[in-house]
Amino acid sequence: MSRVEFWQGNTACAEGALAAGCRFFGGYPITPSTEIAEHMARSLPKAGGVFVQMEDEIGGIASVIGASWAGKRAMTATSGPGFSLMMENIGFALMTETPCVIVNIQRGGPSTGQPTMAGQGDMLQCRYGSHGDISPIALVPASVEEMYSLTVHAFNLADIYRVPVFIMADEIIGHMRERIEVPDKVQLSERKPVIDPTHPFRAGCDLIPGFPTFGKGYAVHVTGLTHDDRGYPCTTNPEMHEKLVTRLFNKVESVRDEISLFETINTDSKVVFISYGAPARAVEQMLHDHPEAQIGHLRLKTVWPFGERCLSQFPNAEVFLFPELNLGQISREIERHTRIPVISIPKIGGNLHLPQELWEITERYL
Amino acid sequence: MRHELRLSGFGGQGIMLSAVIIGRAAVMYDKIFAVQTQVYGPEARGGASMSAVIIDSIPILYPKVREPDIFVIMSEEGFLKYGKGAKENSMMLIDSSLVYSRPGTPHVLIPATTEARRVFKRDIVANIVMLGALVKVTKIVTPDALEKAILDSVPKGTEELNLSAMKLGFTLAGG
Amino acid sequence: MSGDDWLRKDRLPHIWCAGCGNGTVVNCTLAAVDEIGWQRANTVFVSGIGCSSRAPGYVLTDSLHTTHGRAIAFATGVKLADPSLNVVVITGDGDLAAIGGNHFIHACRRNIDLTVICMNNQIYGMTGGQGSPTTPMGKLSTTTPFGSVEPAFDLTELAKAAGANYVARWTGFHVKELTKAIFSGLSTKGLAFIEVLVQCPTNYGRRNKYRSVTDQIDYMKTHSVLKQKADRLREEGNELPEDTIILGEIVKRSLPAMGVRK
Description:
The complex is a heterotrimer.
Chain A: E1 2-8, H1 9-19, E2 22-27, H2 34-43, E3 50-53, H3 57-69, E4 73-78, H4 80-96, E5 100-108, E6 114-118, H5 123-128, E7 137-139, H6 144-161, E8 164-170, H7 171-175, E9 177-183, E10 221-223, H8 238-253, H9 256-259, E11 262-265, E12 271-275, H10 278-289, E13 296-300, E14 302-304, E15 319-324, H11 330-335, E16 342-346, H12 355-363
Parallel strand pairs in A: 2-3, 2-4, 4-5, 5-8, 7-8, 12-13, 12-15, 15-16
Antiparallel strand pairs in A: 1-9, 5-6, 7-14, 11-13
Chain B: E1 3-10, H1 15-29, E2 33-38, E3 48-56, E4 70-73, H2 76-83, E5 91-95, E6 107-110, H3 112-120, H4 126-138, H5 143-153, H6 159-172
Parallel strand pairs in B: 1-4, 4-5, 5-6
Antiparallel strand pairs in B: 1-3, 2-3
Helix pairs in contact in B: 1-5, 3-4, 3-6, 4-6
Chain C: H1 22-36, E1 43-47, E2 62-65, H2 71-81, E3 86-92, H3 93-99, H4 101-110, E4 115-120, H5 155-162, E5 166-171, H6 175-187, E6 192-197, H7 201-205, H8 213-222, E7 224-226, H9 227-235, E8 245-252
Parallel strand pairs in C: 1-2, 1-3, 3-4, 4-6, 5-6, 7-8
Antiparallel strand pairs in C: 5-8
């Protein structure tokens, strides 16, 4: 069962979080993400949750990590400048395996850039922004409906894999209003229970330890320092560091094909578009306007970890065309995984690619 | 049946809300599809504000208005910035109390602000007058859906005022 | 139980230098949490980065050793998400007043129900003795090689002005008074801030001509005045020397607080 709503993307994101059981929001207002904070400020107290407007984004993500250890599903929402400020604590969340959801409604950057205009310029920052070797999860919605469903999914992934999960949306998807069918119920996962309380950071073959929530008597020590299975600092032992960071990296990378979500159209096509977020809508329109051309389309819903299996869905592909609202960030990642030429179709400035301009480029390859 | 509607005026007229009401009427009550977008930022307040709605009987893929076929213009600056280049055969509803220019394309003059002031002593409902006229002229949503979407969207205690404004719009548009 | 039962014994010995004042503060803190009757299972210690911030790692409760300066912001999340938890932040002068200054004043403004204990050794001890916002004018550090030219922060006045419900200052020498002050802080609804001046023989004392640990403690003893006495002297028109250390309860009040257990 479901009901129809006419929602803004940011509203759908906040509602998805609430449906997923998110009961803590800590953040700092920033355009174009602010509607999420405002919605949570109104809704969380009624749902028995907590909203706190922190003094900056550093405090926002810090409070979210604290709330997660206190047992709450917790999130923050921001845009480029705030995202940059959060980076150190995002690294802390990765190192301490803290489940949390971080929404980035991307705008034009760098610096203050274009606060009210769309961009996808933070796609590599979410992957590589923290110092050290990390492997986070990033989901990319292309509709108001996905702002809801992928936010729910993000909370599940965060709890299953014990990592921060990013929703890397853009101003267009965050701000537009459209029809959404809101399900009455969503599927929720739970954090794994602790197996060995004396070694709370010891993981089994899935590389994911159980979660020792604060206040349950585990007396767990959580530190951003390199630590052993007990959680105790162990900073000068090279083997210990290698073991820990490799596990943190592999617990996500080893299941990248399971995590990665995508949709395909015309899989036997020679000319294949790859897209995510708002540009996907331009590609879909172009395909709709030119059905006779039988152009392929791979729409990514998960960008990180990148599961290369999605590329093999197009066995006849001779060229990948990749429009992004940046100067070619994920297209470079695709190049790492294929010998087929990847043609980046970059656009920055805030406007979305026009279907017509994509068609003109396509015609060169048909 | 795809329609692309662009609304423009100045900050405070309710240009954004008008677009949301039309989108809401289409999706929630006419059970069709709509995408609403708008220009954010400081220029949306002081200068010409702009919002847009796409309405279609099938799911809408490209969310941005490309070539509007319907315009609602409520300020001279809004006309110059967003209305002037209207394509042939587009329909423009103009608040003739505030806009002096006239397009070479089909248009309907609605003295919405003057009439809102005269009848209700409230300029603020001029946008709802324009919505009434818009629906009467273009039929992009049904009058019933418009009425329900207005009731969903306006502050409590102003429902009667806004419905009267909508009906005034129907009348001014020749209904 | 006694204070000792709160120690994570498998983590000892600690990393602090011989003569360091931090251990005393941990003892006083654990004596106070034990006396007030808190349970280990619902008590959380939170810290940032620095010598002080290693303290939670030695306490047998849930403990969150976070990033530099951000302990209070993390603690805010823990406390608001679960007000049934007792949350203590242990921090240092650099962690709290330099990189974490903004979180500090805003936590005081919110009056969130945390007890914040600052081990103020007036130096960045862990990284080899760089100047901090509480290094006194003229004092030497590796980054103030000709003597600090910046005025130092008075952390208690800062906490008071920002709105904390309980503010006190003691030194590591005043063990009984400090334990009592921490007890009062733990009992306070709202933000309790206790600053403890501690000696750092390795990186502060050595550079600033305190030949021994006792020299530095003697300095703190001879240069400190109880708040009541300082107030009286001032009322009588006396000026106190610039380097006077005011000790005691600076403020105790019950402004509205956040995150208090229902």
